[in-house]
Amino acid sequence: SSVFAHVPPYPGDPILSLMEAFQQDARADKVSLSIGLYFDEQGRLPVLDCVRQAAQALSQNAVPCGYLPIEGIAPYRQLVQDLVFGADHEAVRAQRIATIQSLGGSGALKVGADFIKRYFPDAEIWLSDPTWENHLAIFEGAGLRTHSYPYYDAATGGLRFDAMMDTLRGIPSGSVVLLHASCHNPTGVDLSREQWQQLIPVIVERGLIPFVDMAYQGFGDGLDEDAWSVRALAEAGAQAFVANSFSKNFSLYGERVGGLSVVCNDATTAANVLGQLKATVRRNYSSPPTQGARLVQQVLQSPELSAQWAGELAEMRGRIKDMRARLHHALHERFGERRDFGFLLTQRGMFSYTGITEPQVHRLRVEHGVYLIRSGRMCMSGLSRANVQHVADAIAHVLG
Ligand code: PMP
């Protein structure tokens, strides 16, 4: 008899299972608006030209593939700091930020979560309602208790800012608060700068520990604009965790490349924190992989390739905005004043919460080959000029 008899089958990740169903769907006009990947107008995952050039340059002088330092490549780590915080940021200059290379944004969240569990064993973490499902899995998996604070307002497609603030004013000091820097997943609803300016003093004065997840830097308004909240927190004296990912903005999903930065109040503390982050990595996976970080480093250290990257990113961002406008326009034509889709224009980044219910999501898939995830979250980058009308018609059909 099997010693593994008590191991239940894995039901699968709902988003990835949906992707498989999509691939098996024979309909020519099927549209995938589920998984959080950026697709171009032709529905392909792009290979950025700056990355292609970086790969060529790297392949010309083959370097041996030894182990990287536990904390990752030193110049890469500095470039991450400069990109996330801005090279002139006081916290960067004061060397009071500890940054490690991470396995994507997920790896940064996991190392941060393990570090918190060890050094803040009683801290509990507060997540937006709703948030990326893996936030829950990662923090609970690290042994932390999770709670949620009010966030998305289903009635308006906007933010429950007052309720969010009330909750954050009432939670124990020392609590960790997970915040999305920009392009909130899954809702697309972000805080405005004015709202951040109200939130940040509450965080600092109440001694809350922000953990900022920045998985979409450059997909909202721009590289610096999207990092504004992170920089403002550090400037205000918040001691904070920041997870950043290059999966989307470099289209390097499978390379698993990102960073974890911990903003401390001085350089000595940052050195100690860096040491303990290394210890955390050592007992997890020992050291990070090479290729993704080398590619990103190659781009970011070159002014020409960086400028090119910023341009390619602007194109991806622009296409998403264009699709938001086109879908909004097509839906407005179908619904007129009967239903307001203005949230499509105010929400930012790759995702929108559409308010489409689970039974309607089901009908969209079965009757029209339009794939959304159960919550009604739509990935805008699955839209193209060629399919946006079909999607609008399908939505009009199921919403009636
Ligand atoms: N955080 C958020 C909010 C995300 O949406 C994602 C990716 N779906 C991640 C983190 C993880 O990104 P990565 O693939 O780089 O691990």
TrEMBL record:
Coiled coil: none annotated. Keywords: Aminotransferase, Pyridoxal phosphate, Transferase. PANTHER family: AROMATIC-AMINO-ACID AMINOTRANSFERASE, ASPARTATE AMINOTRANSFERASE. It comes from the Bacteria. Signal peptide: none annotated. Belongs to the class-I pyridoxal-phosphate-dependent aminotransferase family. InterPro entries: Aminotransferase_I/II_large, Asp_trans, NHTrfase_class1_PyrdxlP-BS, PyrdxlP-dep_Trfase, PyrdxlP-dep_Trfase_major, PyrdxlP-dep_Trfase_small. Homodimer. It is an enzyme of class 2 (transferase). The lineage of its organism: Bacteria, Pseudomonadati, Pseudomonadota, Betaproteobacteria, Burkholderiales. This is Aminotransferase. Its EC number is 2.6.1.-. Residues 29-395 form the Aminotransferase class I/classII large domain. Its cofactor is pyridoxal 5'-phosphate.
